[in-house]
Design a protein that fits this description.
Blueprint lengths: L3 H21 L9 H8 L4 H5 L4 H33 L6 H9 L13 H9 L12 H12 L17 E5 L9 H5 L5 E2 L7 E2 L19 E5 L7 H4 L7 H54 L3 H25 L10 H29 L1
Antiparallel strand pairs: 1-4, 2-3
Length: 364
């Protein structure tokens, strides 16, 4: 879709182009160039210059107009495309893109980075080695070594070992709908909702195994990709010396590599869309909180002051009520009981004084 700014520019440039063509066409009219006309057409008769009887002029004039219009249009479109490219320029390191194209896009984080793109950037900057991707295996390490002109290194076992492609399978009878696996999946290949059954989209699963550890009921297992008629020959090859079989085997291997690359591209797009979705949701939450604070922040001081005043009034009423209470039947009390009552009253006064100090600090 063409952006609105580009559309408006094109609407402005079309009338300008029309005026340019109308202004430049007379310059190519033979009547404005007598000498050039007579030289090119081999005319020496001035009367022929003023007439339109020249066959060459009549045939060349439309052609020159067309060429002029096409040239102007090409220049205009080139400038327009250049402007669009500058406005929508995305800073990308071509080396990072080429490295990322080789990685399998499982987004498994076994390399020590949050995804294949950060790992590619680390390789390009020299912060990471080329043998830290177990899903890519030996073939991936060799491809990176050839691309970067580095020496081949075997896969680093500290980051894991290469395993056949597998997909996650959820035991739906055990799933409790905790949504922890949804949050862990880097390509949004799990469907489900809170307290509802979850399931895996097998065609979109990259086999990263990131959904297995968070599951609190261990209902997720990794199962190898089932053997089908398309990949049976790749797993169980039949060796034949005939040329037809060799060509067919080479074709099958090429198709298999192309399918793996297509799957990797789809996984990359899903992972990038997930990151964009998470960022968008974060911004939307921040906007909602900001709007809520703007609505509720108009009268927070008045509300807080009213609450504090009500609390202070309630405490004061309670203090006055306690002070107004006089113990009954105290005329014939012994000195011991009277001393105990005095101690109780003193402690009560101390507590009330402390509460009053705390309230004053809060109001400040």
């Amino acid at each position: 879709m063409i952006p609105g700014s580009v559309r408006s520019l094109s609407q402005q440039f079309v009338p300008t182009l029309d005026r340019i063509v109308k202004a430049l066409v007379p310059l190519y009219n033979p009547r404005f160039h007598g000498e050039q006309h007579s030289y090119s057409c081999h005319h020496s008769n001035p009367s022929a210059l003023e007439s339109d009887n020249c066959e060459n002029c009549r045939s060349e004039q439309p052609m020159l107009t067309i060429l002029l219009g096409l040239s102007s249009l090409a220049l205009l479109l080139g400038a327009l495309l250049r402007y669009v490219a500058l406005r929508s320029k995305v800073e990308r390191d071509p080396l990072v893109v080429r490295i990322d194209a080789i990685l399998p896009q499982t987004q498994c984080r076994q390399c020590g980075y949050s995804g294949c793109k950060p790992y590619a950037a680390a390789i390009a900057s020299g912060q990471a080695d080329i043998n830290q991707c177990p899903p890519g295996g030996d073939a991936g390490v060799r491809a990176l070594a050839n691309l970067l002109g580095r020496e081949y290194k075997p896969l680093n076992p500290e980051h894991g070992v290469h395993k056949p492609k597998s997909v996650a399978v959820i035991d739906e009878s055990v799933c409790i709908g905790c949504t922890l696996c949804l949050q862990a999946c880097p390509v949004d290949a799990i469907l489900g909702g809170a307290k509802h059954m979850h399931t895996v989209i097998a065609s979109e699963c990259t086999g990263c195994e990131l959904c297995v550890p968070p599951c609190p009921v261990d209902c997720i297992s990794m199962e190898p990709v089932s053997v089908t008629s398309d990949n049976r020959k790749k797993r169980y090859p039949v060796f034949d010396i005939s040329l037809t079989q060799c060509l067919r085997r080479a074709r099958d291997e090429t198709i298999g590599r192309n399918q793996e690359r297509v799957a990797a591209n789809v996984a990359r797009e899903r992972h990038e869309f997930r990151l964009m979705r998470i960022e968008r949701e974060k911004q939307e939450r921040a906007q909602r909180h900001a709007q809520k604070n703007m609505v509720s922040g108009a009268v927070p001081d008045a509300r807080d002051a009213a609450k504090k005043a009500a609390i202070a009034a309630a405490i004061e009423r309670a203090r006055m009520q306690k002070a107004a209470v006089v113990p009954a039947n105290t005329d014939n009390l012994s000195l011991v009981v009277q001393s105990e009552i005095a101690e109780i009253e003193a402690r009560r006064n101390d507590v009330m004084a402390t509460e009053k100090m705390v309230l004053e600090k809060k109001t400040l």
